[in-house]
């Protein structure tokens, strides 16, 4: 299967990695050559780590990289693709424009997919001449390690599109959960609900960052606590999702002020080196020392 991934950031490069290691030919496209190069370098670094740990052979690493072609040319990337996966930032207008542009370059039987974690796939499909060919394929970070892909069925997604989506996910060795298109789907709504309550507990002084996370890691066997996970996802991403869910589902998803303040301060989590934790070399080394952010008990506008 020939796969095109639009967007070479964390999720796009991860999807390209998963597809290429499974034997698919992949075109990885972004708007700047530097973004494309960074994406391919990220795949290479992850594969190199796999070689060091004995999970990947050097031959497998080389073969996977050889299957990935980087480009800034949308037409070149999309032409001949069996499946185009959009993985650009979580902006409705940007995603609609990207998908509509891609549709002009693909064959009639090609399938389009969005990696959105919360936006309406039905609304995205409205930008297409053939909305029945769009499906949501919500991957999880890090893509090469996470075993789940959430398949989101929009109002007009047809069975042929679903069959292609299911076959692709199966081919890369991952499991699917299938959900109807609704705000936050299943995974994002549940994950954000846990994360926002953890932030409110921190904000009102119920417990420390480390103890809140330990409660879920040790008490419920979560591999990562909700505040550390918020750092990994990105505080700005979590804020955008919460604002969207608040608009769609009501006040229970109102973003806490602690989250808003951190985002305004540029403390976005792992990607900036500080969020609820301080991060060094990709690892959370200690909770952030920002007592002014928490223990205020106010969740105003």
Topology:
Layout: E1 2-6, H1 10-21, E2 25-29, H2 33-52, H3 58-66, E3 68-71, H4 74-78, E4 83-86, H5 92-103, E5 111-114, H6 121-125, E6 134-139, E7 148-153, H7 159-171, E8 175-180, H8 187-203, H9 209-219, H10 226-233, H11 235-249, H12 257-264, E9 277-280, E10 283-287
Parallel strand pairs: 1-2, 1-4, 2-3, 4-5, 5-6, 7-8
Antiparallel strand pairs: 6-7, 9-10
Helix pairs in contact: 1-2, 8-10, 8-11
Note down, in words, how this protein is organized.
This protein has 301 residues and is α/β, with parallel strands linked by helices. It is built from 12 helices and 10 strands. Strands 3-2-1-4-5-6-7-8 form an 8-stranded mixed sheet, with helices on both faces. The protein has a two-stranded antiparallel ribbon with strand order 9-10. The longest helix is centred in the first third of the chain and has 20 residues, at 33-52. The termini are far apart.
């Amino acid at each position: 299967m020939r796969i095109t991934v639009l967007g070479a950031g964390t999720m796009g490069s991860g999807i390209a990695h998963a597809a290429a290691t499974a034997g698919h030919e992949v075109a990885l496209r972004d708007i700047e050559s530097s973004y494309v190069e960074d994406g391919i370098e990220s795949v290479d670094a992850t594969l190199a780590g796999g070689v060091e740990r004995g999970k990947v052979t050097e031959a497998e690493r080389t073969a996977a990289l050889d299957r990935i072609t980087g480009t800034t040319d949308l037409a070149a990337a999309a032409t001949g693709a069996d499946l185009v996966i959009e993985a650009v930032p979580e902006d409705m207008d940007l995603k609609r424009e990207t998908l509509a542009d891609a549709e002009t370059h693909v064959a009639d039987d090609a399938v389009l997919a969005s990696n959105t974690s919360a936006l309406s796939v039905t609304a995205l499909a409205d930008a297409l001449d053939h909305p029945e060919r769009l499906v949501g394929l919500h991957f999880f970070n890090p893509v090469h390690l996470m075993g789940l892909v959430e398949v989101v069925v929009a109002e007009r997604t047809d069975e042929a599109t679903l069959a292609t989506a299911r076959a692709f996910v199966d081919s890369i060795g991952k499991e699917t959960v299938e959900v109807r298109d609704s705000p936050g789907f299943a995974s994002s709504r549940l994950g954000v609900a846990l994360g926002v309550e953890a932030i409110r507990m921190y904000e009102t002084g119920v417990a420390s960052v480390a103890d809140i996370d330990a409660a879920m890691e040790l008490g419920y066997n979560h591999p990562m606590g909700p505040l550390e996970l918020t750092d990994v996802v990105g505080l700005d991403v979590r804020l955008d999702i919460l604002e969207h869910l608040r608009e769609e589902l009501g006040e229970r998803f109102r973003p806490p002020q602690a989250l808003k303040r951190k985002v305004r301060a540029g403390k976005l989590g792992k990607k900036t080196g500080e969020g609820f934790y301080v991060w060094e070399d990709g690892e959370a080394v200690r909770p952030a020392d920002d007592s002014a952010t928490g223990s205020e008990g106010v969740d105003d506008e």
